[in-house]
């Protein structure tokens, strides 16, 4: 019993790290993966580097997406699409009263 009380703070620390650091990161990664898979032609997106564009085609062989920008067509990896910024871009504008 004495050994269990010695290791209790370490075990508690691992539990806290799991619930406050590891689990939220895994949840966010799963959301980003499902967002990248749910992209469709015509979606307006923003890449993590800040490039704005519209999805025009997909390349399943390379797991990439072809985006049309003001400069032309550019191929990006699906994981380079920013989920948060793209969702903010596509939200309807709320009017102020």
UniProtKB/TrEMBL annotation:
Source organism, top-level taxon: Bacteria
Entry keyword set: Cell membrane, Membrane, Protein transport, Translocation, Transmembrane, Transmembrane helix, Transport
Annotated protein name in UniProt: Sec translocon accessory complex subunit YajC
Keyword Iron-sulfur assigned: no
Residue ranges of coiled coil: none
Family per record: Belongs to the YajC family.
Pfam families: YajC
UniProt gene name: yajC
Topology in membrane: Single-pass membrane protein
TM region positions: 6-22
């Amino acid at each position: 019993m004495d050994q269990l009380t010695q290791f209790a703070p370490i075990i508690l620390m691992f539990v806290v790290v799991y619930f406050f650091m590891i689990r939220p990161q895994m949840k966010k990664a799963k959301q980003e993966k499902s967002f990248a898979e749910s992209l469709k032609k015509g979606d307006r997106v923003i890449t993590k580097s800040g490039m704005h564009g519209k999805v025009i085609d997909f390349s399943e062989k390379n797991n990439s997406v072809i985006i049309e920008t003001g400069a032309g067509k550019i191929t990006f990896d699906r994981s380079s699409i920013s989920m948060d910024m793209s969702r903010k871009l596509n939200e309807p504008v709320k009017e102020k009263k």
